Amino acid sequence: MLPVTQEKDELDSLVRKRIRALRVAQGWSLEELAGRADVSQSTLSRIENGQRRLALDQLVTLARALDTSLDQLVENATDDVISSPVIDAAHGLMRWAVKADPGLSVVRRRMTEPPPDSPARLRAHPGREWLVVLSGTAVLLLGNRHFRVETHQAAEFPTMLPHAIGAAGGPCEIMGIFDRDARRGHQRGDGPDAGAPHDRGAPPA
């Protein structure tokens, strides 16, 4: 673990590099960003070069001018980069949390059964879902439409449309990303597969 002073100095240097990198990525000169942030060009130059103390009010203004947030501007680079999945052996699930947005959840799922054959078993709930088929072929029922999703193909849809997904002609494996609302919709399921999205052809919650 780094001493507090060293960690603070490293974060200070990182923030300055981020400001310059974001400015350069936008193709802006010092003068252009200074004008957008309502600071003098010399002040901005000293901030980037480490010759001026970083003030919170200036960081807020610079973050806004650079179309980012203060949290992203000062995010600590020492946070863990690698994470392991949470294993749900009962439902055959692997789940990863997405740190960039705590509302997102990533789920890996193997399915062996086709989707339900009754429109009454399709469910709808607020949110949005994205999935990619890792192997095999999946069948996505979306409202009154029927889609085959082949290996390496992806699908994205609002979960307010009645939907369900299952396997086509053999086992398939999918990786799904759910926003906060879609995840909550799945977690409110009332059957044995609640919290296990699209399990064995069952409709999502």
Task: Explain what you see.
With about 200 residues, the protein is an alpha+beta fold. It is built from 6 helices and 9 strands. The strands form 2 sheets. It has a 6-stranded antiparallel β-sheet. It has a 3-stranded antiparallel β-sheet with strand order 6-5-8, with no helix packed on it. Helix 2 packs across helix 3. The chain is elongated, with a radius of gyration of 23 Å. The C terminus is likely disordered.
Features:
elongated, 24% strand, 6 helices, 9 strands, three-stranded antiparallel β-sheet, 205 residues
Give the beta-strand count.
9
> What's the SSE pattern?
HHHHHEEEEEEEEEH
Question: Strand fraction band?
Answer: 15-25%
Helix coverage percent:
25-40%
Based on helices, strands and strand pairing, what is the structural class?
A: alpha+beta
User: What gyration radius follows from the Cα positions, in whole Å?
Assistant: 23 Å
